[in-house]
Design goal:
The structure holds two protein chains of two kinds. Chain A contains 14 helices and twelve strands. Chain A is α/β, with parallel strands linked by helices. Chain A has two domains: 138 residues, Thiolase/Chalcone synthase (Peroxisomal Thiolase, Chain A, domain 1); 239 residues, Peroxisomal Thiolase, Chain A, domain 1 (3-Layer(aba) Sandwich), CATH 3.40.47.10. Chain A has a ten-stranded mixed β-sheet, with helices on both faces. In chain A, β11 and β12 form a beta hairpin. The longest helix of chain A has 19 residues. In chain A, 64% of the residues are buried. The model of chain A has no long low-confidence stretch (mean pLDDT 97). The longest helix of chain B is centred in the N-terminal third of the chain and has 11 residues. Chain B has one helix and eight strands, in the order αββββββββ. Classes of the chains: A alpha/beta, B mainly beta. Chains A and B meet through α5, α6 and β5 of A and β4, β5, β6 and β8 of B. Bound molecules: zinc ion. Zinc ion binds next to loops of chain B.
Chain lengths: 389, 134
């Protein structure tokens, strides 16, 4: 397989948008194309993450509409759906097609306009990410799934719930500290532990500030072969490893504090890259809920199982940590336009490795990883990037 | 060769008509699979029989849903229960008061209620309940 590199990235502000999903994607895509210094017509295929366009805008087959809108009506354009990991699996496929040698220049990304649905309808639609037969009939919600994980984590590792809740709150505080320095973030503001612990209960023990917001937004990345990338830019960001894994219904998962799809996916990515978790400087990971960040740092191998929550207390995932987790603000502060999230994580890693993140720049970062999770722990995708200059 | 799956239709009929919960027992490794799959969840064997599950289990974890999705009302308890035969099942735990961590490890029995179809569900559903032993 050929070495692949990211040569251009683009991203809209996350929040509530007046633009359509296709318009948001076009904004991110044109920024990525300009950043890559290529012409629109150089692009050979589009890989687009989009989850609920059907319900948000009554729009299926989003990908060909998106490619047409940016002036590429005839290229293959494919929509990827893996719930909240849709953008990430679109990126992974784009990379594989370039690696195979079939395409030389492609664009990948994601777009989502959650805000059109309104809260009540949105809760029904998001419920479609659960097992429709064996989970949805019990009225489970996404916060509910991670609440089940939080209680199990407390019980399994003998961490009293009040202490775990404090540790979870520290995840939210950290990610909002980072997010306050990201002007594209949905909620670029700092919060305190008391804000989290004083917020409305959503699904015991998760409170409002343990949860990420649903957002509108889009992100896009241009990938080329590394050879081509070196001619286009002084700062090509190499893809050095990737992996993907799946899980069935929650009931078929032995222990939901250990997401096996993620263990499998990360193991694949590290093996391909020929590195270990200790080599990762920065990681954009799937903090849809505060406990989700804690369990992710364990399955990704940054900390032993049961130690992820203590690592937060010790600042090991903060700005001066062993691995800087979610320097963009994460899903928590940056926002979560579900189909775009995996692409937005890629945007941040590329920008960080190129040293373009201003106030939130992590100095000296050379290797970064994305981690995206979809559904009730159903789909996980990991991609590892490295400075290519 | 045609394989007879433990279909959702069959499972639901058994619950509604006989208040019995069916699972699959592997003829090769004896593992019990629930919810049903096309093959044994342990060894992928296609040789299995349908068995009646005891309906007994232990609470592994729980949450109280305070913000329900469309189609559900009020505040209620969702749990994951490890069944006596091994597999997990998601349930609504029926309690007089909202539980705390002490509910983890408590035993009880599975019950059933049928949910009507909604615009998107493509049919009715069984909702599994859980009643704690005294
Ligand atoms: Zn078997």
């Amino acid at each position: 397989m050929r070495q692949v590199a990211a040569v251009g990235v683009g991203m809209t502000k996350f929040g509530v948008s007046e633009k359509t999903s296709v318009e948001m994607f076009a904004q991110a895509a044109l920024e990525a194309i300009d950043d890559a210094k290529i012409k629109i017509r150089d692009i050979q295929a589009l890989f687009l993450g989009n989850v609920f366009g059907d319900f948000e805008e009554g729009q299926a087959v989003m990908a060909p509409f998106a490619s047409s809108y940016i002036g590429l009506p005839h290229i293959p354009a494919i929509r990827f759906e893996g719930a909240c990991a849709s953008g990430a699996i679109a990126v992974r496929d784009a990379i594989m097609w370039v690696a195979s040698g079939y395409y030389d220049i492609v664009i990948a990304g994601g777009t989502e306009r959650c805000s059109t649905m309104g809260t009540s309808f949105a809760t029904r639609v998001f419920g479609m990410g659960s097992d429709s037969y064996y989970e949805w009939p019990m009225g489970i919600t996404f916060p509910g799934v991670f609440a089940l994980i939080a209680h199990l984590y407390s019980s399994k590792y003998n961490i009293p719930l009040p202490r775990l809740k404090e540790q979870m709150a520290q995840v939210a505080v950290k990610n909002h500290d980072f997010g306050s320095k990201n002007q594209l973030a949905h909620f670029p503001k700092k919060i305190k532990v008391e804000d989290v612990l004083g917020s409305m209960m959503i699904a015991d023990p998760l409170q409002l500030y343990d949860c990420c917001p649903f957002s509108d937004g889009a992100a896009a990345i241009v990938f080329t072969s590394y050879e081509a990338a070196r001619k286009l830019t002084d700062k090509p960001v190499k893809v050095i490893g990737f992996g993907q894994g799946s899980n069935g219904s929650i009931t078929h998962q032995k222990d939901i504090t250990v997401i096996e799809a993620r263990e499998k996916s990360a193991k694949e990515a590290y093996a391909m890259a020929g590195i270990t978790p200790d080599d990762i400087d920065i990681c954009e990971l799937h903090d849809c809920f505060t406990i989700a960040e804690i369990v992710a740092t364990e399955a990704l191998g940054f900390f032993p199982y049961g130690e992820g929550s203590k690592a937060v207390e010790k600042g090991l995932t903060g700005p001066a940590g062993k691995v800087v987790v979610n320097p963009s603000g994460g899903l928590k502060a940056k926002g979560h336009p579900i189909g775009a999230t995996g692409a937005a994580q890629t945007y941040e890693i590329v920008k960080q490795l190129r040293g373009e993140c201003g106030e939130r720049q992590v100095d000296g970062a050379t290797t970064g990883m994305t981690d995206t999770l979809g559904g009730d722990l159903c789909t996980v995708c990991n991609i590892i990037y490295q400075k290519g200059w | 060769m045609s394989v007879e799956f433990l279909t959702y239709k069959k499972l639901m009929e058994e619950v509604e008509n006989n208040k019995q919960l069916l699972g699959m027992k592997c003829k090769s490794c004896e593992a019990v699979t629930f919810p049903p799959k096309a093959v044994c969840s342990n060894c992928c064997s296609r040789e299995y029989e349908f068995i009646q599950l005891s309906g007994k289990g232990t609470v592994k974890t729980f949450t109280v849903i305070r913000v329900p999705p469309e189609g559900f009302e009020g505040e209620y308890v969702v749990g994951l229960v490890e069944m006596h035969e091994g597999p997990n099942i998601m349930v609504n735990i029926k309690t007089d008061r909202f539980p705390d961590m002490s509910i983890i490890g408590k035993r009880g029995s599975i019950g059933y209620v049928t949910l009507p179809s909604d615009k998107y569900s493509g049919g009715r559903r069984v909702s599994f309940l859980f009643f704690l032993d005294d």
